[in-house]
Structure to design on (842 residues):
């Protein structure tokens, strides 16, 4: 890769190792990776593969035992920088119920700004803006427990957005949602990535979500096992399955067809692509 | 959602009483309650009733909501009444009931003390009806703030109250789910003696504790990730400001106290 | 032992200001050995319906009959019914509470008042059914297990009641692909080997398409569709209007048809479409234009 300019990397992990106290093996083991400016990256892996631990290392919730994590050029091991890092790398967690602090939506969105001592007038403009971006303005004065899962997660995203982060990390933020809630959240983060230029890291085990990322990192046993575009990674069906993961249904179909001797492209991801392939192959006859 | 605790018994509105600073409401309610203890005669209670009625009209709350607030305490009030009625002695005997002698003084006292209780509850109901728990928490934090200098954890206390308010509905929901799940496995929460029933609660309480700890852990991490670092240097979205409204309310309450003091002087 | 639901209505907080009707005139019969997939949005009434199936909720009107016993009958033996219709809740691992896996699974049978020997037999049997190794896991604390294992312990806890109908509310919610696959496999096996009647509530059209023999679709408290998967999935447009997905295989068929391929209706399984595409590509005989 050669020398990268510092501000091109939102997150840079170099040989990061982390072990939980009283555990035998490293939860994250010698991991090196980076998240570029404006990138939409997905980290995949089965439960216990170390992907959530890695996410927490990106937000200075954990500090590496060895190696370094730089967030926008700031070392997470530097105590002085912790709050700057957390403001720049916001995090959305899995359980929508367990990350909303306040009893009114807009007060929850304000929570991070209040912690950082932002003046009230500015808090007001920033939370209004953040709620508008995630399409939750009309719920500003509602109680969080009256919202659906997808709406709660969008409130959580707004709370981070209000802090003007450079990167947002979603740690299995869709795992507890129904399909429409998942779609709401995914549409929201894609829009933030596209329109606000915020880098996104999603930790997920939904292959359909991973397939929409620019770049995939597949973890197993605390180590990175595969990297590449979704097309590159999923085309290697055998290896993905070996790591306890799935591939999108159409990729799996393409794989089966190839085994039956049909010359379908191995990197089909969507229904549309499969249709094109069938058209191409049938017109040969 | 009917007994939505985050709303408590809050009756949403935009009346002058609703718009008052919650700190002023809290403090003036305390003053009102103290004044109740200065009441010496039923004339004083008539004055209190008139004052309450005025406030409730201003707040545009149906008066029956105040009565509703008293309802849960009806047994305590009745108990106070009966206790005073039968155990106070006096000169003028009205009625003899077995070992009990009912006197005029006892009747007066019984009415007097139970009315005090009724007004006390109604007065605080006005506060909770026109102020949401969130505002109340806020007010409490700010009123107690000066005590922080003496290491009184005002911010922490308010944060705990907020989190409790936030999580009570979630945990109620969860309790219902776990209870049903155990009933689906044949658990019986309804029959048996006291010990059996207490034992039957274990399959409900253990999962509830486990999940509460998990939630607490998750929440702590989420708060940390959002730069939480205690109460120092923290700003607030909503700033509380005393307005003319609060001044007027304070004057009104002072007037009421003055009347009560006069009442005590002339009728006591 | 059929499960009959007749004109079932359910209203929450009847008479209060927040009164909401969750179920409208639901009627259906589920026969022995069926595998029913129950689909619907959050708030469509699925969870309410499921709780009626073993008497956890009382109908506002209408009735539910299990093996001919009316569940709203005051004299009906609740415990007997609850062991006939086993209900596995969403995130069922949250209900685990005992010190060991074994004790937790024994909770249901114990409540039925069985003797120690029978309880032990049932615990072993249930653990076998969910592929948990008795010798290795029975004495462990439930909190030492992985998420997928905990879920299986919870399912075993219901199976130990020996239900003839097993109702599962979103059994795969929140699990990773491996865990999901395990649970689906185990449900399929229960159905095939023990002949247990299964009602599976799911958001995943793909899962339902691969497993169920009958699909019921709920929308805003109404039962809007009830039929074989073939029948249901040919109504793709209606499903989409209700905000529900259509299995990807069905989407593929629809789009191939639009491109002029002669794809028969009623294809919704991966195996079938694979066969069909193989034929198309090898022979090229299906292209109409």
């Amino acid at each position: 890769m050669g020398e990268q300019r510092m501000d091109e990397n939102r997150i840079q992990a170099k040989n990061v190792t982390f072990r939980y106290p009283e555990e035998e093996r490293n939860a994250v083991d010698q991991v090196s990776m980076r998240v570029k400016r404006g990138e939409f990256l997905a980290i995949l892996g089965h439960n216990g593969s170390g992907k959530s631990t890695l996410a927490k290392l990106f937000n200075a919730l954990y500090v590496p035992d060895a190696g370094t994590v730089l967030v926008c050029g700031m070392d997470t091991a530097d105590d002085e920088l912790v709050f700057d890092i957390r403001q720049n790398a916001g995090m959305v967690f899995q359980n929508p119920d367990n990350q909303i602090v306040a009893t009114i939506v807009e007060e929850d969105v304000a929570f991070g700004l209040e912690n950082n001592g932002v003046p009230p007038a500015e808090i007001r403009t920033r939370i209004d803006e953040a709620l508008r971006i995630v399409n939750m303005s009309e719920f500003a004065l509602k109680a969080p427990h009256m919202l659906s899962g997808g709406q709660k997660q969008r409130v959580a995203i707004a709370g981070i957005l209000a802090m003007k982060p450079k990167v947002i990390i979603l740690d299995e933020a869709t795992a507890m949602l129904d399909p429409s809630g998942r779609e709401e959240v995914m549409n929201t983060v894609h829009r933030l990535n596209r329109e606000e230029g915020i880098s996104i890291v999603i930790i997920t085990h939904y292959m359909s979500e991973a397939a929409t990322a620019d770049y995939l990192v597949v973890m197993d046993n605390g180590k990175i096992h595969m990297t590449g575009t979704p097309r590159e990674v999923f085309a290697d069906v055998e290896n993905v399955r070996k790591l306890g993961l799935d591939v999108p249904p159409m990729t799996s179909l393409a794989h089966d067809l190839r085994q039956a001797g049909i010359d379908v492209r191995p990197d089909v991801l969507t229904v549309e692509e499969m249709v094109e392939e069938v058209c191409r192959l049938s017109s040969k006859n | 959602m009917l007994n939505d605790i985050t709303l408590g018994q809050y009756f949403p509105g935009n009346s002058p009483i609703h718009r008052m600073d919650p700190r002023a409401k809290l403090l003036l309610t305390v003053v009102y309650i103290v004044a109740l203890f200065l009441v010496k005669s039923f004339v004083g209670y008539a004055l209190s009733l008139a004052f309450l009625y005025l406030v409730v009209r201003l707040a545009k709350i149906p008066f029956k909501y105040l009565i509703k607030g008293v309802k849960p305490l009806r047994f305590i009030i009745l108990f106070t009444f009966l206790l005073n009625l039968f155990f106070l002695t006096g000169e003028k005997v009205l009625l003899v009931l077995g070992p009990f002698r009912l006197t005029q003084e006892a009747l007066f006292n019984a009415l007097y003390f139970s009315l005090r209780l009724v007004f006390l509850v109604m007065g605080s109901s006005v506060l909770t009806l026109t102020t949401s728990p969130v505002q109340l928490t806020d007010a409490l934090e700010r009123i107690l703030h000066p005590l922080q200098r003496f290491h009184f954890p005002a911010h922490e206390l308010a944060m705990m109250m907020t989190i409790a308010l936030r999580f009570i509905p979630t945990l109620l929901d969860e309790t219902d789910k776990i209870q049903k799940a155990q009933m689906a496995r044949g658990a019986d929460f309804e029959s048996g003696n006291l010990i059996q029933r207490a034992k039957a609660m274990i399959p409900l309480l253990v999962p509830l504790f486990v999940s509460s700890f998990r939630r607490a852990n998750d929440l702590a991490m989420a708060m940390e990730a959002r730069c939480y670092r205690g109460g120092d240097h923290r700003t607030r979205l909503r700033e509380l400001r005393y307005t003319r409204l609060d001044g007027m309310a304070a004057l009104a309450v002072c007037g009421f106290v003055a009347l009560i003091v006069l009442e005590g002087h002339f009728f006591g | 032992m059929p499960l009959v639901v007749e004109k079932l209505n359910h209203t929450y907080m009847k008479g209060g200001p927040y009164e909401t009707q969750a179920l409208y005139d639901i009627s259906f019969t589920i026969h022995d050995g069926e595998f029913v997939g129950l689909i619907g949005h959050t708030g469509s009434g699925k969870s309410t319906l499921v709780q009626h199936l073993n008497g956890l909720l009382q109908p506002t009107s209408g009735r539910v009959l299990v093996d001919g016993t009316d569940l709203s009958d005051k004299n009906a033996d609740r415990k007997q019914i609850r062991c006939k219709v086993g209900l596995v809740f969403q995130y069922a691992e949250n209900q685990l509470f005992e010190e060991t896996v074994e004790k937790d699974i024994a909770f249901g049978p114990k409540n039925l008042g069985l003797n120690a020997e029978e309880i032990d037999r049932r615990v072993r049997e249930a653990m076998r059914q969910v592929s948990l190794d008795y010798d290795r896991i029975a004495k462990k604390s439930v909190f030492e297990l992985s998420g997928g294992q905990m879920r299986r312990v919870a399912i075993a806890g219901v199976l130990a009641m020996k239900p003839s109908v097993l109702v599962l509310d979103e059994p795969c919610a929140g699990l990773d692909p491996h865990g999901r696959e395990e649970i689906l496999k185990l449900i399929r096996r229960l159905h095939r080997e023990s002949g247990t009647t299964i009602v599976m509530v799911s958001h995943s059209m793909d899962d339902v398409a691969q497993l169920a023999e009958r699909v019921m679709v709920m929308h805003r408290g109404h039962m809007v569709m009830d039929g074989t998967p073939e029948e249901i999935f040919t109504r793709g447009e209606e499903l989409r209007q209700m905000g529900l997905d259509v299995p990807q295989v069905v989407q593929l068929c629809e789009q191939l048809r639009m491109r002029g391929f002669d794809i028969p209706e009623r294809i919704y399984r991966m195996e079938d479409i694979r066969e069909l595409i193989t034929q198309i590509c090898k022979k090229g005989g299906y292209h109409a234009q």
Strands of chain C lie at 3-12, 20-30, 35-40, 61-66, 69-70, 85-88, 165-169, 197-202, 214-219, 222-227.
